[in-house]
Amino acid sequence: MFDEVFLPHMAEAYRLAHWLTGNAYDAEDVVQDAALRAFRGIKTFGAVNARAWSLTIVRNTAYSWMTKNRSKAVVFTDDLSVTEQQQIEQEGLQGTRVETPEEIALFKADAEEVQRALVKLPEQFREVVVLREINQLNYRDISEITNAPIGTVMSRLSRGRQLLIAILGDRR
Amino acid sequence: MSASRPDNAELQMNAYFDGELDAASARVFERRLANDAFLKAEYARFLSLRHAVRSIAPYDLPSDLLARIASTLDASSLGKAARPAGVASQVTPLHSPGRSRQRSWSFRALAAAALLGAVISSYVMVTINRYNLRQAIASQVVASHIRSLMAPQPFDVASSDSRTVKPWFTARVHEAPQVLDLAPQGFMLVGGRVDVVGHDAVATIVYKHAAHTISLTTLPPGQSVSDRAIAGYNVRSWDDAECTYMVVSDLPHAELVAFERAFTTESAALEYN
After folding, report:
1. Closest Cα partner for A24 from B33, B203, B95, B126?
2. Domains of chain B with CATH codes
3. A118, B53 contact by CB (below 8 A)
4. Is the Cβ pair A11, B49 closer than 8 Å?
5. A77-169: which CATH topology?
6. From its phi and psi, is residue B209 left (phi > 0), alpha (psi between -120 and 50) or beta?
7. Which of A80, A93, A115, B161 sits at a 20 to 30 Å CA gap from B57?
8. Chain B partners of A96 at a C-beta cutoff of 8 Å?
9. Phi and psi of B253, rounded to 5°?
10. Which of left, alpha, beta for B198 (phi over 0: left; psi -120 to 50: alpha)?
11. What does DSSP assign to residue B80?
């Protein structure tokens, strides 16, 4: 059962873990840990969507792993105060004001630059962008994996993309 | 538009970009996109962003990770009952080369098994899909038969003359079917109608046998299903080189077999003439 449900998604699981933790070593730990959780929890698998189920475990494992092993706790802006959240939303990262899209010309970014920009993105934006663009999941699956309503997934994706475009547009 | 909270147009654009809008909303949005230079520019940026993100080299699964996981699982299933918690503490320490070498045979086995599993399951999925598709088509054909019985007449053109029915179909469906007069065998041609199966118009010829209505639907080839009853109606289907014929009626199964025999005999006789 475990072999049919979790194993086929191992490569994707690793990719997601790598993006969430930011490096290969931590990703390996997370995937191992997630595999063990999946193995033990295989009876809770409801035979609906093996991919989403597996990635949910990986995602949750990654966050609990980071909370346990890193001094800096995982901060979701949803937990911030309204003012702090507005500040992040309006100013983007590191206080750079997000330019309105009219100000940014069509950009040409190479893979390395985009990778760096993506790593800089706050977790809750990064995970939806990664799940959508790299794992290429649909909104319903992303909503299931991140345990957020579809509306929230949509606005995070939208914000995440704008932030990325702003970061990449800022280079020059 | 300010860059703070995403407004509705912004969300719509994302949904459209991600293929999450239904067909009608997508068309509405496309019209809007065509007339709005601002949206168009942003859409172009989205495209370059997607292109750039997808050009990042994927992080590849380290080749020995599967093996390490397999050995962790082995160890864990041995002492499983004893240690329900403390997942992380049981994870094999990373970077222990001795262990991964030792288990590399199991990685190969596991990898081969995973690959084989993927191949088999995709084959099974394709087969199941095909089976489900045929099943769905049979249900639609039966639904059309039921609907026709609710109408004042089970046919759109009434005629017991195959020379009237055939040209009527020619104007309406892609392939006009064979319209055979089976009255001598006890199946009276009463007319024809057009049914919609999937999104295609197909020809259905209506016969009467005693007080019973028989619908004979001509489908593209390769759609036959095994004999079955759907919603209380018997279904029998068969193929020839050009079409699949599916017959639906409340007649007993044996009568449908007789109908098929009458139809194929008559059809063959016609070809030799």
Report:
1. B95
2. 8-52 (no CATH), 63-102 (no CATH), 129-272 (3.30.200.100)
3. yes
4. no
5. Arc Repressor Mutant, subunit A (1.10.10)
6. beta
7. A93
8. none
9. -50, -45
10. left
11. T
pLDDT tens, residue by residue, B186-200: 899 988 999 988 888
Helix axes B37-54, B8-17, angle to 10 degrees: 40
Distance from the Cα of residue B53 to its chain's centroid: 32
Task: Give the full edge-to-edge strand order of the sheet including B233-239.
Answer: B157-158, B188-197, B200-209, B212-219, B244-249, B233-239, B228-230
Which residue, B206, B200, B207, is CA-closest to B223? B200
Report phi then psi at B194, rounded to 5: -105, 125
B66·A108 Cβ contact <8 A: no
Number of helical H runs and strand E runs in chain A = 9, 0
Chain segment A38-54, per-residue pLDDT in tens: 888 777 776 567 888 88
Q: Chain A residues with CB inside 8 Å of B2's CB?
A: 100
For A2-69, give the CATH class: mainly alpha
Residue A82, Cβ neighbours under 10 Å: how many? 7
Residues 131-190 of B with CB under 8 A from A: none
- List Cβ neighbours of A119 (8 Å cut-off, separation of 6 or more): A22, A126
Q: Chain B, 7-66: which have a CB under 8 Å from a chain A CB?
A: 10-11, 13-15, 18-20, 38, 41-42, 44-46, 48-50, 52-62, 65-66
pTM value > 0.90 = no
Q: How much is the ipTM here?
A: 0.77
Sketch the domain layout of chain A as residue ranges: 2-69, 77-169
CB A39 within 8 A of CB A75: no
Q: How far is the C-alpha of B53 from the C-alpha of B43, rounded, in Å?
A: 15
Provide the pairing of β-strand B200-209 with B228-230. unpaired
Give the DSSP H/E element, type plus range, for residue B46. helix B37-54
Query: What is the distance, to the nearest Å, from the Cα of residue B189 to the centroid of all Cα atoms in its chain?
Result: 33
pLDDT under 70: residue ranges of chain B: 1-6, 76-107, 272-273
